[in-house]
Amino acid sequence: MTRGPPPTVAAPIPSAPPPAEGLKAIPLGTKVQGAPTSLEGFRSERRETQEGGRTIIREPGRIIVRDPGGRSFIRHNEVDRFRYGARDVRTEQRGNESRTIVIRPDGTQIITVNDRDGRLVRRIRRDQRGREIIIIDNSFRGPRGIGGFYVDLAPPILRMPRNRYIVEADDASPELLYDTMIAPPVERLERRYSLDEIRYSASVRQRMPSIDVNSINFETGSWEIPPDQASKLQAIADGLNRAIAANPRSVFLIEGHTDRVGSDIDNLSLSDRRAESAATLLTQQFGVPMENLTSQGYGEQYPKEDVDGPSAVNRRVTIRNIGPLLTGGSASLPPPPPGTAPPRR
Q: CA neighbours within 13 Å on the CB side: how many for 290?
């Protein structure tokens, strides 16, 4: 488990840039005209500045923050993914909050509420009858990490076999994949965490078991998933749909990781776009509800094997249930020793 130094600058991560073509519905199967599909397509469009002691790199659809301590963080506009297959997209301003409402063909609405600084407050699903489910609630006030996005915890103490804590998708049965997706935290949680704290704090994410997918082969420098690779996500999609049907408030983080070939900034951007591509494919091809998924890239920062150079093990997509982290769910405690009665309640 990797535990790096906390960020040096305790300022919030700036909000991601809005889509270049604006927030509008995009029919399924439509490609945005002029949108790059590889790193070569936008390297020349990157703009680097120094702000508040940090290096800020802006590129189409992304903002990258490099802390003086060596950590880098990337942010993209999550609503951008929701537009594909939508019937309509509209925005509203209510006081200090903005609402982006994505309307699906069946009339279901996905409502994303952001504060004046562009940070997520709530994500809501409203069905055709007006019934609402709050998928993500970031509106609570409580102890927050550094800059509102970073928490430094000691690594969890594992009380399970490592191959059940990090499950290799290629070797796992459908039942094991599903069991991992609905597994509780490996340690009791001290509190609930915001989505940003989960995204940017490895020590928080480590409280949940994960599934690694190494079998998707992306073209070099590209984040598009070739058609012949899509079927490799079928078993993952089946488990996700089953888990979300059982708990409609489930939230799964789709992570992108790379090996240490190329620049760290290229790898961070590439991994974030690949994670988003996987989340998009899970929705468009397999019907996984888009609002129950979120994606984040980590580049080469969290390798499974410590090697400089090509590594099929390090090039991976990871799936993790972060719902309990968002709500402060109970941990899975070890069973009592043989002959010991469970505590009375």
A: 24
What is the per-residue pLDDT across 144-195, written as a single tens digit (0 to 9) for each?
Answer: 888 889 999 999 999 999 999 999 999 999 999 999 999 999 999 999 999 9
pLDDT tens string 40-94: 878 888 999 999 999 999 998 899 999 999 899 999 998 888 988 899 999 999 9
CA–CA dist 293, 339 (Å, integer) = 42
Q: How high is the pLDDT of residue 332?
A: 53
Give the model's pLDDT for residue 2.
Answer: 61
Judged against a pLDDT cut of 60, whether residue 344 lies above it is answered with no
Q: Give the whole-angstrom CA distance, residue 313 versus residue 305.
A: 7
Q: How far is CA 137 from CA 102, 147, 177, 179, 188, in A?
A: 18, 19, 26, 25, 20
DSSP characters for 117-163? TS-EEEEEEE-TTS-EEEEEE----S---BTTTB---PPPPP-S-HH
Largest CA distance in the chain: 67
Q: What CA–CA distance (Å, rounded) separates 291 from 81?
A: 10
> In the sheet that 72-76 helps form, which strands lie side by side, from edge to edge?
47-51, 54-59, 62-66, 72-76
First to last CA, the chain: 35
β-pair type (293-297, 252-257): parallel
**Pick from 73, 84, 75: which is nearest to 21 by CA?**
84
pLDDT at 26: 81
Residue (of 183, 173, 322) closest to 235 by Cα position: 173
CA 119 to chain CA centroid, Å, is 15
DSSP 299: T
Taken as a whole, the chain contains a residue count of 345
Cβ neighbours for 343, distance < 8 A, ≥ 6 positions apart: none
pLDDT at 330: 59
CA distance 317 to 214: 7
